[in-house]
Amino acid sequence: MKKKIGIGIIALIIIIGIVVASIWGFNLGFTYSDHKEVDIYIGEEFENKEIYDMVKEIIGNQKIVIQKVELYEDMVAISVKDITDEQLENLNTKINEKYGIENETEDILVTEVPSVSIVDIVKPYIIPAIISFALVIVYFIIYIAIYKHQGNEISMPKALAETVVGIVAIQLLYFAILAITRLPINQFTMPIAAVLFVLTTIAKLCNN
């Protein structure tokens, strides 16, 4: 009875998650949503916090991501939701004063970065997931065949179906929870999904 209730709750959460994702989509984290990237050549090593503090002072309470780029890490990529021409000019002035350079505002590259679809986020993981899933199925079939050969009673179709459904259900549950709670989809989302896949697979193999 408890097992049926648990399955019912999981199924309900997945259904609600599908509805929420269909209507409102997923909540994309900052790096996956539309924003602007400002690339500024400094010409020397710098501390990310120094740049962050300058940007924060100018644009206020926006999400700010600072990254060092180029081989010698002498160029900064500043990701912000939005920045005006006036703010960009003020930032350029502050950076010039701080590092003793003479950049013009025209030297700064501002790129409009569009939002990334959930399909594009998942796409790099599809082929590895399919290969991993296929290997798990092959291993499971061999395992069951050896188990039955030893005289043990086990239904291969039933055991295989339960394993596949269990693995898929955990993934659907995970993404349903993300959709319902509106937790942001970020660079950690797919690695966590991969860990859940591995843990679920191991649990299913150990229980058979």
How would you describe the overall organization of this protein?
61% of the residues lie in helices and 12% in strands. It has 6 helices and 4 strands; from the N terminus they run αβαββαβααα. The chain is elongated. It has 2 domains: 2-28 and 117-206, no CATH class; 34-113, Alpha-Beta Plaits (2-Layer Sandwich), CATH 3.30.70. It has a 4-stranded antiparallel beta sheet with strand order 2-3-1-4, covered by helices on one side. A hairpin with a 5-residue loop joins strand 2 (64-69) and strand 3. With 208 residues, the chain is of the alpha+beta class. Helix 1 (2-24) packs across helix 5 and helix 2 packs antiparallel against helix 3.
Topology:
Blueprint: H1 2-24, E1 35-41, H2 48-59, E2 64-69, E3 75-80, H3 85-99, E4 109-113, H4 118-149, H5 156-181, H6 189-206
Helix pairs in contact: 1-5, 2-3, 4-5, 4-6, 5-6
Write a brief structural summary.
With 208 residues, the chain is of the alpha+beta class. 61% of the residues lie in helices and 12% in strands.
Overall, the morphology is elongated
Unreliably modeled segments: none
User: What percentage of amino acids are in beta strands?
Assistant: 5-15%
Order of helices and strands: HEHEEHEHHH
Q: What is the oligomer described by this structure?
A: single chain
In the sheet with the most strands, the strands line up as: 2-3-1-4
Helix content range: 55-70%
Discrete helix count: 6
Say how many strands there are. 4
Mean pLDDT: 87
Distance between the terminal alpha carbons, to the nearest Å?
21 Å
Structural class: alpha+beta
Radius of gyration: 25 Å
| Number of spatially distinct domains | 2
For the largest beta-sheet, the strand count, sense and barrel status come to: 4 strands, antiparallel
